[in-house]
Write a structure and sequence with these properties.
Blueprint: H1 23-26, H2 31-45, H3 56-65, H4 72-78, H5 83-91, E1 101-103, H6 106-111, E2 118-122, E3 130-131, H7 137-144, H8 149-152, E4 164-168, E5 177-184, E6 187-197, E7 200-207, E8 215-216, H9 231-242, E9 247-254, E10 259-265, E11 276-277, H10 284-294
Antiparallel strand pairs: 1-4, 2-3, 2-4, 5-6, 5-9, 6-7, 8-11, 9-10
Helix pairs in contact: 2-3
Length: 298
């Protein structure tokens, strides 16, 4: 199988599935990290990972152990500052949250005038955010000293430069909704809306035809999707942004008419998410979700 230096996945006409990734690229992931992911997968899913199985968790396992997350473009787009350059290049300006400041040192953090109406995040980590009017500077300094790779051995974070980004409230503080789209080989067939409430997060998963997927996480999800006006434009943007990658999740926010890209996620939950169904509260539910994600992909 010929291999070029561009970011395209081997043609669908080639035999095999995820195992088509070049051996020399897989070997770049240290054995200790591959063993870590293998054990973590076994403990979490209570089965062995299988690269040839078209299931979401196996796909993400392969993403982390094959070497794909070492791709420079994957690392670039894992950085919350630099991902905006990728979005601007693909979609044009105006599809990201503006940047107020990038803080690179403890001195810059200690002297910066944080204000209300802003959010503060580490560019080199995931799931960390603080409000500008209640920020703890000591926490931000701890973020600067942390290498997020060591949390779950996700290589896209290993070589990122620690920085703090300050952003304004999205849509000037107006209500917004959160949507996330899975993109596999440049095609997106599956997405979900995150609905937050005092009792937790509710996930509404849906297919490209807007049919609701019977999926549950920790909390029951609503049964009906009220699509925003710009949903089709969001699908299209997700596919354009995901084209350089084998698999990625594109996270967005929308006020119904406009949308912005929040981030790109290359190994969702480090492959530890469990997929449950109202109809089949077991591994069969992951088959349902995965069938929509893979579609007719080879």
């Amino acid at each position: 199988m010929a291999w070029s230096t561009d970011l395209k996945w081997p043609a669908d006409s080639d035999e095999g599935t995820m195992q088509q990734f070049p051996t020399r690229q897989r070997s770049q992931v240290p054995l200790i990290d591959r063993a870590f992911h293998w054990v973590s997968f076994l403990k979490r899913h209570r089965r062995l990972p299988d690269r040839s199985r078209k299931w979401v968790s196996d796909l993400i396992y392969d993403q982390m152990t094959s070497g794909r997350n070492l791709d420079p473009v994957v690392q670039l787009t894992s950085d919350k500052e630099h991902v905006k350059a990728h979005v601007d290049a693909v979609l044009g300006p105006g599809h990201t949250i503006p940047t107020h400041a990038i803080l690179r040192t403890a001195d810059e953090i200690d002297t910066y005038d944080f204000t209300s109406g802003t959010f503060v995040k580490p560019t080199h980590m995931s799931s960390k955010v603080a409000q500008g009017d209640s920020v703890d500077r000591s926490t931000l300094n701890k973020w600067l000293r942390r290498n997020f790779y060591y949390r779950k051995r996700e290589h896209q974070y290993r070589y990122l430069t620690p920085k703090i980004i300050v952003e304004p409230l999205v849509f000037d503080g107006a209500p917004f909704r959160e949507f996330k789209f899975y993109v596999l080989r440049g095609r997106s067939r599956l997405g979900f809306e995150v609905r937050r409430s005092p009792d937790g997060q509710h996930f509404l998963m849906f297919g490209r035809d807007l049919s609701v997927v019977p999926y549950d996480s920790r909390f029951p999800a609503p049964e009906h999707l009220d699509p925003p006006t710009c949903l089709e434009a969001m699908w299209d943007a997700a596919e354009k942004l995901g084209t350089p990658f084998h698999f990625v999740r594109v996270d967005m926010m929308t006020d119904g008419e406009r949308y912005v890209i929040n981030e790109l996620t290359h190994s969702e939950g480090a492959g530890r998410y469990r997929y449950r169904s109202r109809r089949h509260p077991n591994l069969a539910s992951e088959q349902e979700v995965s069938a929509l994600l893979f579609g007719d992909a080879d």
